[in-house]
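Help: read this over?
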Amino acid sequence: MRKIYLLSLTLLASAGWMSAQSPCATGRYAADTFTAYTTSSNIVFGSNTTASGTTQSLTMDVYQPTGDLETARPLIIWAHGGSFIGGSKTDADMVALSQKFAKKGFVCVSINYRLGLTPFDSTGAVKAVLRAVQDMKASIRFFYKDRLTTNTYKIDTNSIFIGGSSAGAITALHTAYLNKSCEVNYYVNPSTLTTLGGMEGYSGNQCYSAKIKGVINLCGALGKYGWIEPGDVPFVSMHGTIDGTVKYNRGLAAPLGQPLIVLDGSRMLKEHANAIGINNPFYTWYGKDHVPFNSSTLYMDSTVKFIRDFLVSNLTCGDAPLLPQNATAQTANLYSYTTCTANVVMTCASPGFVSISELSTNAVISSVYPNPSDNEMTIEFSNSNTTHRIELVDITGKTISSDVTENTSYRIKKNNLSAGLYFLKVSDKSGASTTQKVIFK
């Protein structure tokens, strides 16, 4: 009898152990298995220098399922939108997403990161993204440190997901896939990168891991789709086809309506990831603009369900109900875009597709000044013993003016041009050319 009793205890203990190891068997993560969540606000995870030179304490709000007994829980780190100029961890969409996923059994974190887009151009945009990436990495490292020390938050560090909306999604994508300094140096010089703190930054919790399980991309983009490489972590994307802020395909990101830098949108990332075998569920909002879930309960609900399915599949919860990616009518010709199948393998030495504002294949131009300019700019050529063609192109690709000169310099005037961003393309008789961004005030 004693043996039977001990055997029963052993089986019960074994069943309990199995339940603890497989919480999704009870519906956790797929459904709202908790009725409430607990929020811990303004937890400090680091600090760093802002664009304006001040020191900012980096804080986050942590959402946990109330009454949760699990000791190794998956984590979602969210970053808010706001064009790297505004927004905060308490934005309505970040709060809603954190609350909804906490009720499903996830620990959710909404972070503040350093804001500031200075100067307001492509260089400033790259710096802003780098600061945000450094801050997100510090938040990831915070939880690795916590797991190895106090284990306050009981996080399974093998199941850390990062994501965000708009600028927050851009931050998450670059955190995951921008991992070579030479990729950054294509935009800013090595000394600038060093001044900013390098690829990892010094926002906090140095020497701990920043490894993640996957990425949630809500209306975001990546500098170059080729930064996603075979073996990288999976991602899930949702994007509107007429997004005017962060383009669905490739295009100029336009915070506050001002075009700044060419990025590869979710559609481009989908095509490339498919080509190299990276899992990346993709949901298209047809005929919708930027972040439609931010102002619609219906779209927020579908967003939560689609993200949930991605998370559940990556937690190996195969018994959970899954939501179809898109209705049949929506999937028609969804992945017919094939331009980016060329040069799908990208290295630092061969950047592949780049924007007209970033091209500089040969140093035909010695200098352009003043830039920005109120009225006119002077172009000085590197080689004064040849003929040069000068073209001014607007952001739509339309040629505004074209001229040829044999002089050693050339003046280009604003005349009746509207203030804004333009591209100056200069070529010589040998076929060498340089394209540079210029701004008329």
User: Anything to note?
Assistant: The first strand starts at residue 37 and ends at 49. Residues 342 and 352 are 9 Å apart (CA to CA).
